[in-house]
Amino acid sequence: MHCNLKCPLFIKPFVISVINFKVQLLITKQMKEFMLIIRTQGDHLANLSPQQQQNHLGKVMKYIGGLTKTERLNGAQPLEMEGTLISGTRGKFKDGPFNESKEVIAGYFLIKANDLKEAVEIAKENPVFEDGTNARIEVRPIKIMEGIN
Q1: Of 1-10, 102-111, 121-130, where does mean pLDDT reach its minimum?
Q2: Which of 22, 25, 57, 128 has its CA 20 to 30 Å from the CA of residue 3?
């Protein structure tokens, strides 16, 4: 639809909205999904005071808000510290301790980014690296497989 200066005023915002929607749709379709896996040494919040925990939560909410506003967040959840690791082959399974080392997966973010480099930059902004926590974030692209996703 072409809209010149003689176009009625009520049509112009509609045309601009449609154009903006198409541009945003094009940008979103080109983005890839990445999983940010948060790894910490045990419960990274346990050694923080209640006030420090509230401050950290505020930083996380701001981080999530920024990802949401830019339409880069598909999901995020913290994980409980307890759990079970199941391993096995050919139908024989063994329940073991959840984690024999002190490192645990504390949570994840499912994000959209243009490429791995951009996903890494998004991960570096995560507040888990603040407040004296010894954390690592594994950044992994979501594999696209016909018929699965």
Answers
A1: 1-10
A2: 25
Residue that the structure tokens 């990274």 belong to: 44
Q: What's the CA gap between 129 and 141, in Å, rounded?
A: 21
Structural class in CATH, domain 30-81+99-141: alpha beta
Give me the count of residues in the chain.
149
Distance of alpha carbon 72 from the chain centroid: 8
How many Å apart are CA 27 and CA 19, to the nearest integer? 12
Kindly give, in sequence order, each residue whose CB lies less than 8 Å from that of residue 57, ignoring residues fewer than 6 positions away. Answer: none
| Token pair 């992994």 in the structure block, residue | 140
Distances (CA, A) of 37 to 102, 141, 144: 16, 11, 18
pLDDT tens by residue, 57-103: 999 999 999 999 999 999 999 999 888 888 888 777 777 655 556 78
Start-to-end Cα distance in the chain = 34
